[in-house]
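Re: that chain you flagged

S.,

Sorry for the slow reply, it's been a week of failed gels. I finally had a moment to sit down with the sequence you sent. For the record, here it is as I used it:
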Amino acid sequence: MFSTVVNTLESCRSCGKVHCYFGGYDEWPDVINHLQRKFKYFTTLPQPIFNNNNDTASDDENEDYTEDGNELELIDQQIAIKIIQTIYSYDLAYRVVLKSSQRSLSLAQSFVECFGDKITFFYTNGYFNELKLQSSTNITEATFDRGVLAVSENTFGYVWIEDED
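Prediction finished late last night. Pasting the structure tokens below so you have them in one place:
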């Protein structure tokens, strides 16, 4: 299932560069090391807190993700879907329409569904409002980049787009 979603996400965008990945991890540093190798300007991310019965810890424990070097913001699943939908619907530089909103929504949902019923944390590198993606902190060398990182207890994945002006 993961490879089909990766192949679809990588082939469904007509411009820019697409990074898509799903994988397992044993230790949190494995995730950080992978992201640092893949994205030049990514530095760190606090480990999500899962409690013993595979539910997330209290919101207070996972709420404060702001620290030096942390380029990513914690978001909820619905915002993650909207961000992926947007980065597949529009070019990041000029908002040129690339794909129908409905097709892009289907792509976004396929990414999120890969995590099934597992408790999953979602992150992005900027802000989103209902009208458009807002400012961001790039983690690549591209003029524009935006994406979503998803982390469950033993699995992580991302879809990230790079576009140029």
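What I noticed first: Strands lie at 17-24, 73-75, 121-124, 126-128, 133-136, 144-151, 155-163.

Talk soon,
D.
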